[in-house]
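Lab manual, section 2.4: Encoding a predicted structure.

Procedure: take the sequence of the chain (473 residues), apply the prediction step described in section 2.3, and record the output as structure tokens. A sample record is shown.
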Amino acid sequence: MTPPQNSHYRSPTSRRDFLMRSGAGFGALALNWLIGEETAYGKHMPGFHHPPRAKSVIWLFMEGGPSHLDLLDPKPLLNELAGKPLPASFEEPLTAMGEKGSPLLAAPRTWKQHGQSGLWASEWIPNIAECLDDIAVIRSCWTDGINHAGGVCQMNTCTNVAGRPSLGAWVDYGLGTANRDLPSFVVLCDNKGRPVNGPRNWGSGFLPASHQGVRIDGMSEEPIANLNLPKDYTDDRQKNKAALLAEFNREHAAAHQQQSELEARIQSYELAFRMQAEAPEAVDISRESESVKQLYGIGEEETDAFGRNCLLARRLVERDVRFVQVYSGTGSKWDSHDKIEEKHSELCRSMDKPVAGLLKDLKQRGLLDQTLVVWGGEFGRTPMSEKGDGRDHNPTGFTIWMAGGGVQGGQTIGATDELGLYAIEDKMHVHDIHASILWLLGIDNMKLNYDNNGRLERPTINEGVFNKKLIGA
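Recorded output:
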């Protein structure tokens, strides 16, 4: 007698199919995930191209564009010429950018040298200033993105138009997960808003959808939505539901193998099930001592939100999460076309203590050597004024910094001109920034590739080199 042709009675046709139907299929959840991971990472992943210096990355993203001129790149001439037009020698390239002339705006900061290295920092970041011996300040960055959509897109994906994978997705693709019970790529925002471009900033582009980032709400009582079971749910009920759902998803995916989103959805359900055991502990900062919370500024009105996310980032990399991106000023709050004194001073107060707390905490736990911390925005700000008391976007010269992960601290790399408008020495394009981050993780940006419809794609679009000065070479 021929059995009815439906999913519950037909004969298994493969080992996976047999296992899915044995023991309600739940035991196959873990096996399917292991097989899937072996297939994905075994066939496509090159692993390390050279010995890595960093194991994880925490990218502190100041969305909107912080002013390097007011934080880490002092320009005495700017104050001397304040109120005057931009000198003629600067005008030609500026005109090519489509900018109109405006008088120069002073940066009335108090600058001091700090630590054994004597690096400069303004009074707006006194706590980060205490950590400058561990920080490499890169003053010569530049980008192609002149507005926020393009700038944020490029700083995340290496191009100023949408469609390519984010750096975190490339890292996840290239190295795989180091903790099977937590996402490998996590995004944290410091308010309920969304960054410019939204989830595209942590998207997977043409890579399999399973490599996209996972946004976690570090300020919520339940940082990972729907993670906890309802009170009347038993473990057995959850197991049976997960097994049945996995069966439906696998059958649907088998008929639509070209859609990586289906496989990503299956993997997300399986990961969610495993996360129910480990994630609640990982994101529970109440387990931290009061002294640690104070280090991050938790409990203080101005620093609580970003402090919680920085502490959560430490707890995640401590548990082998590969890539954590923490947004400050979510929704382009660092964008100061006017009232820069008011807006920047407020934002600096919100992030300075938490960032310094993160560096100090990582260091005292022995984690800074294996964790690369990157700080910066999508671009800087101009020396010319806008609206009389603000600064416009500056993609041609700005500052980011890196610490930990094998980076030699207490140094400056590169320089802008005497007004801080253009990068002029050891220039680092976004391609070079990404290539350097990847190199520190043990990845050669020109060797990591993905076959996208017959075209080999690389994370930095066939450009970008590692800046050896980051490691003192």
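Check your result against the sample. The longest helix spans residues 340-364.
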